[in-house]
Amino acid sequence: MNLRFLETFLWVAKLRSFSTAAEKLHTTQAAVSNRIATLERELGIRLFERDPRTVRLTPQGHTALKRAEEIVRLTSEFRECVGDGARLRGQITIGTVDTIVYAWLPLLIEQMGNRYPSVSLDLNVDTSLNIARQLLEGTVDLGILMGPVVGADIRNLEICRFECEWFAATKLAIPAEPLELVDLVRFPILAYSKGSQPHHAIQRLLEAAGIATDEARIYNTNSIATMIRLLCDGIGMTTLPPAVVREPLAAGLIRRVAVNARIPPLHFHAAYADRPGNPIPAAIAGMAAEIAADFQAFADRML
C-alpha cells in the first residue's frame, strides 16, 4: 500500500475537496482522484461519497480514517527517529503577523534553512484573525500569531509575550512628566487593525478614561511598517513593543512617552494542526519558542 495514497486520503478527508487537496499536495486533481480510486480498489471499500460541490466520508471511510492517521503518524515518527532534518522534504506554509516579522522572524527562517534545507517555505503575513481562519481551513500549516486558536486537533504553544509602551516622534512637543490618556487625544492614536486584541485594548482604555469615541482619532492599520512611518513623521502616537521599534528608537527618531495607561501584554502563540505525516510544523513551533526566548532576553538587555 502506497503511503502517499494514505496521505492523499487524509488531505481529501480534511479539506472535503479533491481540487483543494490537489493544490495542497502540489499535484493535479486527476492525480488525487487516481490515488483515491486505487486505494479504494485495494481496500475493497468506498471511502467517499461524491457530489458536484463536496466529498464526504462514507461509514467505511470514517473507520479507515482513524487507521490511516495512525499509520501515517507512526511512519512519520519512525522517520524522525532514524533520520535527520536534512532528509525531510516538502513545503510548509507559515502565516505570521507584522510584529513577529519586525522582531525575530528572520532568525527563525535562517534556522529553518540550516536544519531543513530541503523544506521550502511559503510565507503569508496577515492579521491574526485571518491567519487563525486560514489555519482552521487548512491553507496554513503553522500560524505565529496573537492566539490561541481554538479548533479540532489544533495545538497551541505560547512562545513569547511582548510588553507595550507608548511612543511618539521626538520632534513632537510632548511633556516629559507622566500623562493621562485624556492628554493624548489631541494626537491621533496609531493602532493595530480593527478587530485585533490591541485595538480592543485601546478602546477599553478610552472607555475607562471616560473618553467618548468621537473625542479620539484612532488610525488603524495592519502594517507595522506603515505605523512606524507615521509615528516617525509625527502623525500620531502609538503603543507598541519596544522590540519592533528598536531601530527608530536607537536613531533618535522616536522616544518613549510616560502615560498612565497601558494596554495588556501581547501574547503570541505558535498554532498548528496536529496531523499525522507532517512533523515539520511541530518542529518549527519548537524552534520558534527557543528563538523567541533568546530574542526576548537580548531585547530586554538592549532596550
UniProtKB/TrEMBL annotation:
<dbReference type="Pfam" id="PF03466">
    <property type="entry name" value="LysR_substrate"/>
</dbReference>
<dbReference type="InterPro" id="IPR036390">
    <property type="entry name" value="WH_DNA-bd_sf"/>
</dbReference>
<dbReference type="GO" id="GO:0000976">
    <property type="term" value="F:transcription cis-regulatory region binding"/>
</dbReference>
<keyword id="KW-0238">DNA-binding</keyword>
<keyword id="KW-0804">Transcription</keyword>
<dbReference type="InterPro" id="IPR000847">
    <property type="entry name" value="LysR_HTH_N"/>
</dbReference>
<protein>
    <submittedName>
        <fullName>LysR family transcriptional regulator</fullName>
    </submittedName>
</protein>
<comment type="similarity">
    <text>Belongs to the LysR transcriptional regulatory family.</text>
</comment>
<dbReference type="Pfam" id="PF00126">
    <property type="entry name" value="HTH_1"/>
</dbReference>
<feature type="domain" description="HTH lysR-type">
    <location>
        <begin position="1"/>
        <end position="58"/>
    </location>
</feature>
<keyword id="KW-0805">Transcription regulation</keyword>
<dbReference type="InterPro" id="IPR036388">
    <property type="entry name" value="WH-like_DNA-bd_sf"/>
</dbReference>
<dbReference type="InterPro" id="IPR005119">
    <property type="entry name" value="LysR_subst-bd"/>
</dbReference>
<dbReference type="GO" id="GO:0003700">
    <property type="term" value="F:DNA-binding transcription factor activity"/>
</dbReference>
